Sequence to fold (257 residues):
Amino acid sequence: MIKVADYATKPPKKADKDDFKKPMKKLLEKLADLQYLMQAEAKHSLLIILQGMDASGKDGITKKVFGAITPGGIHVHSFKKPTDEEFAHDFLWRVHKLVPQKGMIAVFNRSHYEDVLIQRVHGWISEEHAEKRIAAINVFEDLLAFDNKTIVLKFFLHISHEQQEIELRQRIDEREKHWKHNDGDWKERKHWDKYMRCYEEVLNNSTTPWHIIPMDERWYGQYLIAETVVEALKGLNMEFPELETEQKTFSSITVGK
Fold:
């Protein structure tokens, strides 16, 4: 049974940011190479799900980890409040059309899990409704893996209550971060304990496992995510496809008299 409180939000005490700079650079280079290979092979796709409390580092991961990938091979989507059209459909309707096609990477900055987190915290859906949605999500993610060979990597960005306050305060105190400030983030913070219980429900009832990432120090969480993604892509044992052409090729040309 997963209890969020049992997991660290900080890196190990001996971990030094400077020691991770070169390994991180190599990981990002490898990630770019693997994405290029996956796009060329076009047999698999990769869905990255980033979930966490406000100010847990979702935008930074998108920039620092996936920013090295060519724009043609990745798309990022942030899920906001559903539109009227989206509300008129089942809760997964707006999600399914955004999953990656073969050869592509998609990053969900927040995701379909919002529909079993914020709605549950505020009592907008019943417990029974939430349980049925979690079951539907499991089937949905299994379908992606089975039917489209989509690798689904889910990351819970684990930030401490204390660090979240620091991050939210910076959005008020630092001008370059003013644009990120939202009074609603402070209101949601008041429901911290309820959110943690709902996250635990999700973490314990997902058929596709979650990676719990310590995010009090951004650089460490970003490294762990890059490492996880690279290892997952390496495990696909991908190869560049053979040349498909009717044109004759010559390895050498001999000129005679």
